[in-house]
Specification:
Structural class of chain B: mainly beta
Number of helices of chain A: 0
Number of helices of chain B: 0
Radius of gyration of chain B: 14 Å
Distance between the termini of chain A: 34 Å
Oligomer: heterodimer
Order of helices and strands of chain A: EEEEEEEEEEE
Shape of chain A: globular
Distance between the termini of chain B: 41 Å
Shape of chain B: globular
Structural class of chain A: mainly beta
Order of helices and strands of chain B: EEEEEEEEEEE
Helix content of chain A: under 10%
Number of strands of chain B: 11
């Protein structure tokens, strides 16, 4: 069943470029979290948005930024892309700020050449 | 520092051969332990959440259990369609955090 929607599914960029990834949360969810997953690793937390504000941030540089819109959808922006930014970017939605279940989208596969 | 460690890294089972996956954690004040399944090229799919030591949850051939220091995902009589990477995760830090710290996963392959 359709829950969290991410676009695009795949993306190829070159070093130094900028990229924007998009996420639509599950109906009824108001919190969006973004994760980066390198090949063979578990997802790493980037940041979380609630009520259109960044509430928590993981250990990622300022090149990673985001936004949440009034309809709870969200964007992840990455500037000055590096080869090491190549990964699967996952969006997860949940309700509220507690330890609630996070539901993940299928991800955006970003390749930086 | 909060950490989640999974073992083994990879597991190969024959169809019908039961086994268990381990997730050990050092998280300040347990506020939930989550299990997810991830198929190649896809996002993690939620399986279970456990909140208290002694808690157990089941879904088809899977059963998750929780102690004070670790969680197990028991797979009974697995089928090839159970092949996937199984991830466990716990909330990071204190306060209202709902951000998750993930282990590196156990890659399960079930053969005929």
């Amino acid at each position: 069943d359709a829950v969290v929607t991410q676009s695009p599914t795949h993306l190829i960029k070159t070093r130094g470029q900028q990229v924007t990834l998009r996420c639509s949360p599950k109906s009824g969810h108001d919190t969006v979290s973004w994760y980066q997953q390198a090949l063979g690793q578990g997802p790493q937390f980037i940041f979380q948005y609630y009520e259109e504000e960044e509430r928590q941030r993981g250990n990622f540089p300022d090149r990673f930024s985001g936004h949440q819109f009034p309809n709870y959808s969200s964007e992840l922006n990455v500037n000055a892309l590096l080869l090491g930014d190549s990964a699967l970017y996952l969006c997860a939605s949940s309700h509220g700020q507690g330890t609630n279940i996070q539901y993940f989208g299928a991800g955006t596969r970003l390749s930086v050449l | 520092e909060d950490q989640v460690t999974q073992s083994p890294e990879a597991l190969r089972l024959q169809e019908g051969e039961s086994s268990s996956l381990n997730c050990s954690y050092t998280v300040s004040g347990l506020r939930g332990l989550f299990w997810y399944r991830q198929d190649p090229g896809k996002g993690p799919e939620f399986l279970f959440t456990l909140y208290s030591a002694g808690e157990e949850k089941e879904k088809e051939r899977l059963k998750a259990t929780l102690t004070k220091k670790e969680s197990f995902l028991h797979i009974t009589a697995p089928k090839p369609e159970d092949s996937a990477t199984y991830l466990c995760a716990g909330p990071l830090g204190t306060g209202t955090a709902s951000k998750l710290t993930f282990g590196t996963g156990t890659r399960l392959q079930v053969t005929l």
